[in-house]
Q: What sequence folds into this?
């Protein structure tokens, strides 16, 4: 289980930051923190299978040879029998090594910290993006009045974040505009100051939204909750 870096005071501070940012804009900021973004249990299997396939190469590099006794006075039938026996022994030895490598690697990579470290970064990135998109739709960020919802999503196990802006924002704000906010958020996650990074990102998002989507006087409803949504592991 991934340790939750947010204390109750941290969550209250993040909620307050969202509330303050939204007073400056008609946009909506919604924060989601997930323990993880999906199942990486296939990682041990993939590594175990890959390492097991190296068994023949390991035997060759180790200098293991299959040798037969002198066959000068043997009959053809005896030669065939000996050859079959040697080939069978070589195959059995290779299979036994493959099984040993498979089991050992599988058990090692099944350790959560090792499994996360050995899961390819690109795979984790795709998984985080996919889960963020699921949350964007499931939390109805696409249903705000002017399509001006912004999701700030953090996945703790992967130590990655994603920001998704609705189409009303995308029409006016270039995607790279959010880079500064995302850099502040990921920097906070990496240095162990998750709440600080979150609040900095929210303030920067508020600046962008305030510039392009100022609040309407007397008509600025709070369409989405300001509280951080905490999602358990999947």
A:
């Amino acid at each position: 289980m991934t340790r939750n870096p947010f204390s109750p005071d941290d969550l209250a501070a993040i909620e307050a930051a969202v509330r303050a940012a939204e007073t400056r804009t008609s946009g909506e900021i919604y924060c989601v923190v997930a323990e993880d973004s999906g199942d990486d249990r296939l990682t041990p299997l993939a590594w175990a299978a890959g390492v097991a396939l190296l068994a023949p190469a390991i035997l060759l590099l180790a200098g293991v040879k299959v040798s037969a006794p002198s066959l000068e006075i043997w009959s053809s039938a005896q030669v065939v029998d000996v050859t079959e026996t040697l080939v069978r022994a070589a195959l059995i030895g290779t299979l036994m090594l493959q099984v040993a490598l498979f089991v050992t690697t599988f058990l090692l990579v099944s350790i959560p910290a090792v499994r996360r470290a050995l899961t390819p970064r690109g795979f984790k990135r795709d998984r985080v993006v996919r889960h963020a998109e699921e949350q964007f739709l499931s939390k109805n960020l696409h249903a705000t009045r002017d399509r001006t919802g912004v999701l700030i999503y953090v996945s703790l196990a992967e130590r990655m974040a994603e920001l998704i802006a609705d189409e009303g924002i995308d029409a006016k704000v270039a995607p790279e505009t959010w880079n500064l906010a995302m850099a502040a958020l990921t920097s906070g996650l990496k240095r162990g100051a998750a709440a600080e990074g979150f609040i900095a990102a929210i303030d920067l998002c508020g600046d962008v939204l305030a510039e392009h989507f100022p609040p309407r006087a007397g008509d600025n409803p709070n369409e989405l909750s300001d509280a951080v949504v905490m999602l358990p592991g999947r």
Q: What stands out?
A: The chain has a mean pLDDT of 85. Residues 76-109 form the longest helix (34 residues). The beta strands are 28-34, 149-155, 160-165, 229-231. Residues 42-117 form one domain.
